[in-house]
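Molecular record:
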Amino acid sequence: MDHIRNFCIIAHIDHGKSTLADRMLEHTSTLTEREMMNQVLDSMDLEREKGITIKSHAIQMYFEKENKKYTLNLIDTPGHVDFSYEVSRAISSCEGALLVVDAAQGIEAQTISNLYLAIEHDLEIIPVLNKIDLPSARIDEVSEEIVDMIGCDPDDIILASAKNGIGIQDILERIVDVIPEPEGKPNAPLKALVFDSVFNPYRGTIVYFRIFDGVMKKKDNVKFMSTNAEYQVDECGVLRLDQFPMAEIETGSVGYMVAGIKNLTEVKVGDTITLKESPTEEAIQGFQEVKPMVFAGIYPVDSEDFEELRDSLDKLKLNDASLVYSPETSAALGYGFRAGFLGMLHMEIIQERLEREFNMTVITTVPNVGFKATLTDGEEVDINSPSELPESTRINSMSEPFIKAQIITKTDYIGKIMELAMEKRGRFQNQNYITTDRVELVFEIPLAEVVFDFFDKLKTISRGYASFDYEMIGFQQSKLVKLDILLNGDQVDALSALIHRDKAHEFGKKICLKLKELIPRQQYEVAIQAAIGTKVVARETVKALRKDVTSKCYGGDITRKRKLLEKQKKGKKRMRQVGSVEVPQSAFHAVLKLD
């Protein structure tokens, strides 16, 4: 075990984590030149297209120092705030972390929050200043920022450039010297933590784990402690670029296991694997349960595909433990699921993955956050969708989740960012100057205001120089109302939203205008209304298509024309009674991008 080192890389989005991982794999000759490509660990098409890491990836490499061979297990983590859950899972499987900071951009909000996560788990931190070859690199200034933040010695900071391979040898040597070896008892009963799993159509569920005590061998009978499911290990091994089978995996190592697991619900991330014959006495403390921030309905376009959608979501959940969902029905869309996500990017990624990996075309409804309602009899109920809201006469008060938002930006943009936060019902808490021209602003803002477009607007007004991170601080009372959208008097439940009373009129007006552009014209007038209860707060009308039925009457008696017009009037009246308005899929998406 004294030759094993487990570590992860933490950094803000775009600070060069995946490129640094590439150089380390090259330097340790883990991959041949033919296998090597940029961002080799980002294996999903989506990750390559968007240029971001979505999943944590684990890989093993060997490094020799003073004629000793060391096994390094690297877990590459995402940097985007929506995937911080993946980061927390990687951190609990490691003893050390590389803190990567961009020499041009300095410390960003996400760097700080991931660093605190690592410090809470007592990880050994190795500071790395990346991109020192850039013309805009501010090496001395950013080094000072790092020293202020983690209290290290300025000489401890490794200067590196992942792109050009500068400083990679120093990083690998420092990992071997500084990161502690894993602790554990090789002779104790097996105790392994599941940190990820993935579904393979030929081999069932493949489980990724980190062993804390004991060893795992092929043909062992193992048991999952939280579900009591028992299996025989068909194959176990370590993770290189592909899976690499071995006869046994020792204490402190990271590996994978194939055991013909068909039932998807029996593998839970954070569960403990032990031996059936000699089980361990207590399970490892798993990760904190994930709390979804944003809720939206996911419906199949054809309601016959409901079961197929359920299967697809089950398989996705194996690979993405932060996805939460339960069945629900909607008058407009039929059977579907109410799903919980960590943020808007997470929601977009899940929708894309459903379409690409499972060929499921889905409709997503307007996202909203989870609220709480206190009823007149004192009972508290959770409300995850507008349809769950009780009658207004039974509600005593409503409360919504608030977050503490940390924004790090240049001093030039303080005024504009304050304005944006106030517009989003934010309350200013305090500001700290990190350097003379970089400042950290802290606000309390309702989560519902942040979900849609806060991040986009923040990037626009700060010209990309603001970084944003948030944490939940609990529920606070608010004046919330349910805004319904009516088409010709019929409510479209999929477009309903829970919203603050002060913003209801403005939001209703925007939705009505947007729907007016998107709903195709019919043979009759379509009234689009936004209403709170019975009070209509906004209205738009889609005019009827005009057909000139009298065009074939040239000359002749006026009564002939009148007869045709009367006939048309009767037809339109009957049509309106039976005609329902088709709402195109684009209307549901457009509501997300109202501004």
Observations:
- The mean pLDDT is 77.
- The two ends are 56 Å apart (CA to CA).
- The first strand starts at residue 4 and ends at 11.
- Residues 482-593 form a domain with the Alpha-Beta Plaits fold (CATH 3.30.70.2570).
